[in-house]
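User: I'm curious whether this sequence folds into something compact or stays loose and floppy. Could you predict its structure so I can see for myself?
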Amino acid sequence: MAISRRTRTSGTRKRPASRRRLPSAPAVDPAQCEMDPDLRNLTPRRFVKVRFARCPIRLSLGVLARKWSLLILRDIGVYRVDRFNRLLESLDGISPKVLSTRLRQLESEGLLRKVETRRSPKLVRWDLTERSRDLVPVMMMMGAFHSKWDPDVIHPGRRRMRLSELYDREAMSLLRRML
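Assistant: Here's the prediction. I'll summarize afterward.
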């Protein structure tokens, strides 16, 4: 009979320094709001001035982490592909059912809006909302990240590129406004 690892060790083991939990900051009263389990015992050490009750990155990944969501937003917002059939063509490998589901989910999250331009025959176009327009610079930074760290995959035979080499003036002014 195998002895479990817990019963073999005597006393409590110390966690390595990299895995120790940081002391909690008194900025948020846990009794007043339900804490995100990821943040319960963590105190921001870099870049963040406040302590969040819910992790904003986890919240952002809600619908965006689902397969195809960011690519749908990219095609609508950057490439101006706004019709269902055109999206099917531009997103290689997506099924009509999945595309339809993702469009409805993005619409219910307030990231897309359906624009019906004609009644007979019905013509539906998809457009970004103000909320999802704020995601365009985030997607641009994701592209810049990979262009910097994986240049041979993004554009074979080329070196790392600066933001100003990747994007036009309009895109650069959009990035500056967001930062």
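Summary: Residues 61-129 form a domain with the Arc Repressor Mutant, subunit A fold (CATH 1.10.10.10). The mean pLDDT is 78.
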